[in-house]
């Protein structure tokens, strides 16, 4: 759903997110964005259900808090076909799918979009996903990034090193692909063994644009090493500036140029023809907020069940295995 991180707004009369199951809805959206000269559309995703709040998925289900959730990667091809310039950022986890099959999926999308796809790299945090996917190991927060580092290493090898330019010849000497120009990557690491060749020929970008959003200390180190675009969300310019500085420092430590990373800060505008109209619109939208749905999301993001807390209780920092930066933003990050 388009409003899946704004639980309750689906009840607004002007909301059309219940049409998320129809291709026409997404094609219209893509065409509107292209007509408006937008650079791209970002498709968030999560595997699993937000069931930390009251140890149940009921609040998430009632409020539409990121459930139901279809696979957004399947939308990209049709939206790309309907546009010429719009870019597509898609989310996929390094925890839930082997890099060998994922690398093929991204190469396919890069071919079909003619080089207009990017990957938002997430490490995942919901226990409900791990349980339902049958993932035996329960990596802690920082080790998930260790896994992601190796995951990227595998993907880089598949995308950049397995197939040489000109390997696909087609009709020349009746050879489709020159075997001498296709190489097994022979990756044998701590978390992944991928000995073979990439399944796709080189796509327009080879490696897609890489996005990342983790703002914990380990997440910033990962961003400095890999990301081209980083999403941040902080309650003040002071804390945001400190995060940006650290990400750029991490990039320099990784041997990269700090300014090569583009950083996007969350901003939610409510617009109107006048200040009064914008304020009235804000008041109207605010009246649809689901408090229960917001707590369901916050519980999943932080790993903390807020059902036993008083709404006016001061939030204190707790070390969890979920998205650490969320709690940091409202506790130690503001000190």
Describe this structure in words.
The structure is a single chain. This protein has 335 residues and is α/β, with parallel strands linked by helices. The chain has a single domain, classed as Luciferase-like domain (TIM Barrel). Helices cover 38% and strands 10% of the residues. It is built from 11 helices and 8 strands. The strands form 2 sheets. A 6-stranded parallel sheet has the order 1-2-3-6-7-8, with helices on one face. Strands 4-5 form a two-stranded antiparallel sheet. Helix 6 packs parallel to helix 7. The longest helix is centred in the middle third of the chain and has 21 residues, at 141-161. The mean pLDDT is 89.
Can you give me a brief rundown of this structure?
The protein is of the alpha/beta class and 335 residues long. The chain has helices at 23-35, 58-63, 73-81, 99-112, 127-133, 141-161, 217-226, 237-253, 275-286, 291-302, 324-330; strands spanning 40-43, 87-93, 117-122, 187-188, 193-194, 209-212, 229-232, 262-265.
How are the SSEs ordered, and which strands pair?
Layout (H helix, E strand, L loop, with lengths): L22 H13 L4 E4 L14 H6 L9 H9 L5 E7 L5 H14 L4 E6 L4 H7 L7 H21 L25 E2 L4 E2 L14 E4 L4 H10 L2 E4 L4 H17 L8 E4 L9 H12 L4 H12 L21 H7 L5
Parallel strand pairs: 1-2, 2-3, 3-6, 6-7, 7-8
Antiparallel strand pairs: 4-5
Helix pairs in contact: 1-3, 4-6, 6-7, 7-8
Defining key terms:
alpha/beta; 11 helices; TIM Barrel; six-stranded parallel beta sheet
């Amino acid at each position: 759903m388009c409003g899946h991180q704004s639980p309750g707004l689906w009840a607004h009369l002007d909301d059309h997110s219940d049409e998320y199951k129809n291709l026409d809805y997404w094609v219209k959206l893509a065409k509107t964005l292209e007509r408006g000269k937008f650079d791209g559309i970002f498709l968030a995703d999560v595997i699993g259900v937000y069931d930390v709040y009251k140890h149940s998925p009921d609040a998430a289900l009632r409020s539409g808090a990121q459930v139901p959730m279809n696979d957004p990667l399947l939308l990209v091809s049709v939206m790309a076909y309907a546009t010429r310039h719009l870019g597509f950022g898609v989310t996929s986890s390094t925890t839930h799918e082997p890099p060998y099959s994922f690398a093929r999926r991204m190469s396919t999308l890069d071919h079909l979009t003619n080089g207009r796809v990017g990957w938002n790299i997430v490490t995942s945090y919901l226990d409900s996903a791990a349980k339902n996917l049958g993932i035996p190991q329960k990596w802690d927060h920082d080790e998930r990034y260790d896994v992601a580092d190796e995951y990227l290493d595998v993907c880089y090898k598949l995308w950049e090193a397995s197939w040489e330019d000109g390997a696909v010849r087609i009709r020349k000497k009746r050879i489709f692909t020159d075997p001498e120009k296709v190489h097994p990557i022979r990756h044998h690491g701590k978390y992944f063994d991928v000995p073979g060749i990439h399944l796709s020929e080189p796509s327009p970008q080879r490696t897609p644009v890489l996005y990342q959003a983790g703002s914990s200390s380990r997440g910033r180190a990962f961003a400095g090493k890999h990301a081209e675009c980083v999403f941040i969300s902080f309650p003040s310019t002071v804390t945001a500036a400190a995060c940006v500085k650290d990400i750029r420092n991490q990039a320099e430590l990784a041997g990269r140029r700090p300014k090569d990373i583009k950083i996007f800060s969350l901003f939610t505008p409510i617009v109107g023809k006048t200040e009064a109209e914008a304020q009235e619109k804000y008041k109207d939208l605010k009246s649809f907020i689901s408090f229960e749905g917001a707590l369901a999301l916050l519980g999943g993001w932080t790993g903390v069940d807020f059902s036993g807390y008083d709404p006016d209780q001061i939030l204190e920092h707790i070390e969890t295995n979920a998205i650490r930066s969320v709690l940091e933003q409202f506790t130690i990050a503001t000190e």
